[in-house]
Amino acid sequence: MNFSLSSLLAPDTASLDHLAALAEGLGSAVHQVAQLMGASKATTAEFDTGLKDIDSAATAHHMALLTSLRSSYITPLPRQDLYLMADGLNNAVERVCNAGLLIMATEQFRLPAEAMDILENLGRQAELLEEAVTQFRDLDGLEETWMQLQRNSKRAERVMIEWVSSMTGDLLQRSYNRQREAAHAVDAAIVAVRQITVHVGSILVQES
User: Fold this and answer.
1) Nearest to residue 29, comparing CAs of 85, 88, 89, 100?
2) Which residue, 38, 27, 199, is CA-closest to 97?
3) Per-residue pLDDT tens for 96-116?
C-alpha cells in the first residue's frame, strides 16, 4: 500500500470532530433546560434522562479527544489548546445540565423572563462555538466569532444582574432561596462559557 507524504503529514482532525460534538452537546443541553420553562413535575423524567445522557456523551467525547491527541502525529492546533477547549466545553455542558437538574429538583418551572433570555443567549454562544471549531485556519473569521462571543457573554452577565436584583421581598423566603440557587447555577454556566471565549482569544493571539 502506498502512502503519500501529504497524507502522512495531514493533521488528524478527529479532535475537531470531538470539539464540534461537544459544542453541539452544549446547544442540546441549553435547549433541554429552556424546555423546562413551562414543564411540570409529571414530565421531568424525560428531561432528567435527556440531560444525563447529554452530560455522559460530553464526557465520552472529552475522553475520546484526549485519547486521539495522545495518538496523533500532527494536530490542527497545539495539543494543549485543543484539550483546554474540550475541557472548557465539557465543563460548560456539565454546568448547564446541573442547572436543569436543580430547576427540576426545586420545581421552578416558572422562572422570570431573564432566565429564558440568558438561555437563549447561551444557545447562541453554543452555535458560535460550533462555528469557531471550523475556523482555526480562518483567523479573520475566528476573530469575528470571538467578538460575537464576547458581546453575548457581556449581555448574559448584565441580564444575570437584572435577574438577581429583581428578586424582591415579595417572594416568600423559601421561593427566594430556591430562585437564588437557580440563578447561581445558571451563572456558573455563563462563567464556564466565558472561560471558553477567553481561550478562543488566546488561540487567536497565539496563531496570528
Assistant:
1) 100
2) 27
3) 999 999 999 998 888 999 999
